[in-house]
Amino acid sequence: MCEYNCKTFIFSSSAAVYTLKEKPIVEDDNVGPGNPYGRTKLMIEQILKDLYYSDKQWKISILRYFNPVGSHSSGLLGDASKNPTNLLPVIHLTAAKKRETLPIFGNDWDTHDGTGVRDFIHIEDLAEGHVCSAEHLISKDCEGGVCYTHNLGTGKGTSVLEMVNIFEEVSGVKIPIKHMPRREGDLGSVIANPQLAHKQLNWKAKRDIKDACVSAWKWHTMNIDGLY
């Protein structure tokens, strides 16, 4: 990059870098990842910050994703993982009868229906967040170099059962569920505070969970023969 004098960089980081808490998370909250994935993301963030402090011509954007969901609305791009760990791909694998049941880890959380609540962000909103970040980096506001961090989330929580119910509504398929014990390290609720991205990047999530479920099911039905 330096050879071609390209000193603009956007890094896809994660909410996994935070010491997670129940209240909406802001960018200057404590970091303290609880798994190797989060630690790797945090190490790369630190490398990028060191790079900026050693050469302030760099323009660096660190975007911390919360829970990406959905597929491209065209139905042409989606998650084809055969052994996914994210909720929505597991739901549509269960709908396709590739799994017998959908495991739900904990139904006694301090949430409105007892199941875990997360901040799910549609992947198209996430992509648009990158565009807004890139446009900001090359604007006059960033002349002279910057290194900033933004949460990309909706600021709204959706429970596991809510996600299941919405998916059943859009697909017409009943999802068999199996309640399981809580997993060690899980929290009842993890939600972003995305106000800094709204203010500085002029970005805000536009799509909701129903949009995510519709796009995921469309992608699944258009590509089912080549998926599994």
Automatic annotation (TrEMBL):
GO terms for biological process: galactose metabolic process. One of its GO terms (molecular function) is lyase activity. Residues 2-136 form the NAD-dependent epimerase/dehydratase domain. Its EC number is 5.1.3.2. It is an enzyme of class 5 (isomerase). Gene3D superfamilies: NAD(P)-binding Rossmann-like Domain, UDP-galactose 4-epimerase, domain 1. Pathway: Carbohydrate metabolism; galactose metabolism. Its cofactor is NAD(+). InterPro entries: Epimerase_deHydtase (IPR001509), NAD(P)-bd_dom_sf (IPR036291). It holds the Pfam family Epimerase. GO terms for cellular component: cytosol. Keywords: Carbohydrate metabolism, Galactose metabolism, Isomerase, Lyase, NAD. It catalyses: UDP-alpha-D-glucose = UDP-alpha-D-galactose. The keyword RNA-binding does not apply. SUPFAM superfamilies: NAD(P)-binding Rossmann-fold domains (SSF51735). It comes from the Eukaryota. This is UDP-glucose 4-epimerase.
